[in-house]
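Forwarding the complex inputs:
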Amino acid sequence: MYNLRATIILSFLMALCSSGFLFTSCKGKSMEGMIIITRTSGKTQKLKSNSGDSGNFTTQSQIVALNPEKPGSAVKVLTSAYFSASSPEISCDAMYMLFSARQKETDNCQIYEMNLNNSKIRQVTSEKGDCTDPAYLPNGRIVYSKSTGNEILKRGNSLFTCNADGSDIRKITFNPCTYFSSTVLKDGRVLTLGSQIYPDKQDAMLIVLRPDGTKAELFYKGEKGSYLISGGHETGDGKIVFVESGKDGHKGNDVVSINYNRPTHTRVNLTSELKGNFYSVLPLQTGKLLVSYRPPDLERYSLYEFDPEKKTLGRTIYNNTENDVLEAVLVEKHERAKKLPSEVDMGVKTGLLLCQDINVFNPQSESNGRPFLKSSRIEVIGIDSTMGTINVEKDGSFYLKVMADTPFRIQTIDEKGKVLNGPCGWIWLRPNERRGCVGCHEDQELVPDNKVPFSVKKAPVNVPVHINKVVEKKVSLE
Amino acid sequence: MKTSYKLLLTFGIIVALGLIIHFPGYKLARAHVNSKTAVEDHPLLCTSCHLYTSKNKLLSKLVNTDYFSPFNMAVSKDGSNLYVVAQESNELLVVDSKNRKVTNKIKVGEYPHTVILDNAGKMAYVSNQWSDNISVIDLAASKVIDTLKTGNGPAGLSLSSDGKYIYVVNSFSSGISVIDLSTKEEKKRFDAGNNPTGTQLSPDGKSLLVTSRRALIAPYGDTLKSELTVIDENTQRVRERLNVKSAYMMENVAFTPAGDLALLTMIRPKNLVPSIQVEQGWMMNYGIVIVEQKEKGRIIQLLVDEPNAYYSDPFDIVITPDGKKAFMSNSGVNFISVINIDSVRAIISGASPELLSEYSNNLGVSSRFVMKRIKTGADPKGLVLSPDGKLLYVAEQLEDRIAVINTETLETINTIDLGGTHRITVARQGRRLFNNSGHTFQNQFDCYTCHPDNHEDGLVYNMASKDMGRNLTNTQSLREIRDTPPFKWNGKNQTVYKQDGMRFSTVLTRSEAFNYDDLDAITAYILTGIKYPPNLQYNANGILTPGELRGKAIFERTKDNLGNIIPENNRCITCHTPPFFTNLKLASVGTLALTDDSMKFDTPHLNNIFQSPPYLHDGRAATLEEIWTKYGKEEKHGVANDMTKNQLNDLVDYLKSLRAPRYDGKDSKKQKTSLKSN
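Prediction (whole assembly, two chains):
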């Protein structure tokens, strides 16, 4: 009897000790090396490009997995329980996949996460608007687009971040623009496709911002007549690739690369020699690209390998006469982006903006014959009204304290009250953000001159100007 | 008792003991680590403090090791031998460049800086920055045959065109010594900028250029100016003192073979602009200064940075014999930038002053003249070309290695291992981090950038901690700060762990914070690996002059000249207590500016204070004397208004004589030995 009891107790203790091991080693089959594709049946709708009207979400699309080493083998549908799913994004440990999906046709689109070892899915967001285009942030949070229309903006997507479990939702864009197709650069910033929708609609541009919504700035803007089809993805060799349309006299959509180091002047069309259309591009760690491409003689977009060095199309990885391939991701471990610290303090109501010299000018443009006119004032314009006119200092600098998370634009005014330049694109400042610009319409590649701006010798001007005093939380001295 | 119960009881006791030990033990350990690191999240690792930064000599010896740290180089006329200055082992290494082997090690003075060869290639001259002398080496015998006395902190060297004189750049005393090699006597000495280092004789032998690292001392807000000293080689007089605006840290200079251009490395700091972001080159930029060698020649600056990538800490520059390419070492990012000189000429040719001014702030211009970036090992410093210009040798200081680059293909074709240990200690890893910009957003700067030589850069920054334009901050030295906490002028950081922790990344580097391993490493380096140079200029042997002794008495006095008792808290010695001349406390000395937030200031340590102008927390005092003559009228920073000028001079002389305590102990022997050789 006692021996039996001893045996039971010993067995229990052994089981207890080994349970940790058993639990931790209980893993399903890894999907590493598989390619995950969003495909859509062309029977239901026309393929819609991301020209600025909507996010990267197409109805009745499916996410499927295939083994690239076994061409022709059957694909595994990963989102069969959903009416529509798209935008797969793989975590840096290749263990999880984020995607956006609509369970039923009438449902809002939400963000989900799949454990790639056991295919279990959990819902991340449960919001009223459509949540699309998720991407993993390096601090364990998620960035995504959410439709946030209102009376003025009608329809548009703002960027939000949340914890991996969907909690602690924070909005990070605050201007009347729509944002989608976000990815995360290795430097930790979010690269997103954004386009102004108010007061007038403008072409999409690549915008970069920190995950807390600070320091938003233009990263790349196509020339007139072109428009961006896909968001940008960073390659292993310091380039950003995306799909753009309408340039180089080429009627189709092309895969374009720009250098991270100098994005505005390094555009290279990688597929100008190829006829047909591209829809999306994804860089692989091998240096090759996965492209969704439709040759001119075919009706469907298929998935191909592409060599950006030789600018040649490689093998077909997946094609299906019933479906278009919208996008693809490879399940592979990849370098985690840098975790950027945040200067945002939600206890502070304002942000600070310093402009070093509104009259900074490009000597080359002056030599082209354009007279240079000096500005002496600026007007800060809000969504639906002016926020005030402010005199700039003699050195052309101004220093503003602006209500946080409030969109505004700036235009420059001369001594006679004539508007000279602007308004510029929409700006917002996050709570406690401190931001500087060299000039109002300066060359983006210009750095500040090393001089003390006259404006910072005084207190900042409150914006809107009718605010006499802003009572701030005391910020501790560094 | 049955076996089963015994087992159960034993297990229960073990678990109970574990719980008892764990919970209070954990709490105690947590409290201990929190108190020692001044942060609440440092892992409970005993090794952080008790091993890597241990003061125990045996432990310290076990965890650390010696390195060569190659710095500058010279190459023999036939290219067969490389002569490598090993800064940490105090040696000149002779390297067979063909077989890539170190064939000889010649002991030289303390902290050697530069090596040059005579015109015949038979003798080498090595400047010993911490010995104030030059080792003269017979290369055939591989032996130091003579020692030449120099000014303070000899760095760059150049032979006169006839080979009869050697020009020595005295980096600490900011001067140039001209030494007659026949008499071995210093013929003359003249001033040169502020902390000069690099020097090069023009190809026609008429001009000697000397670069400055620190900017000339000026009030905050004035345009930064660094001196480029031009010496007429024929008359051996200063011909011109050129001001290079908005630039500093001009480490080295090279001439084109035609002699029409001189290229200097430089940094364009943004210390006058509020430090509110890193994006858009808001903190530091790096590039070259181009000095046209003709009457009214222009001084032009071009950045080697790119819009989203910065090439920090440029150190050396060399130009190929055909004058087509220049190579610049960017120590902070482990790259060599290859510069197309024809492209540089095309950019500057006919450009208006306005356009050139814009170029000096334009990150896009580099795409027009930088041909390639070549990756190197850790901390590339000195460069030297083989005589035919086909090979470039790169001293990878923190790799203990020389890289060999083919100047045609622009590829690294070999490396030369100097034969030292391959073990990277925690402190060495910390030094690598200290010198590398990888922890700053877009690699824009690193610790070394503002703390060159682990010291300070002589600049005052608007750190914009609260509002812009407020709280100006004079950069502080990091030399031997181990025993002088708290840190920062406001004393808010009690430890280096806190100083370089999360807030550091939030307000300064604006990129991912150091992980705990890196934080331990950088703390280990800062606390154990940074030493004061000896104070050979003002207190070489520890014996004070009569004037310094009088100054010491004033420093320690308790009564003023009228016999009035000086309140204890207003005596120099009370707050500036030896051996570090700080009582480690905060004080208010009447220097709070209207643009400062209300605060007291951490009492700064004073050893080697002569090397740290400007003074006070916001750098308002250009000299030590000004602390009292201009900014001490209210007598809150000691009683000084009763002093005569002679007394003030004595006090300043005494302050300048202060040196690291270790030079009064065991290490004083070293210093005296090096002095005897003079």
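Chain A has a mean pLDDT of 87.
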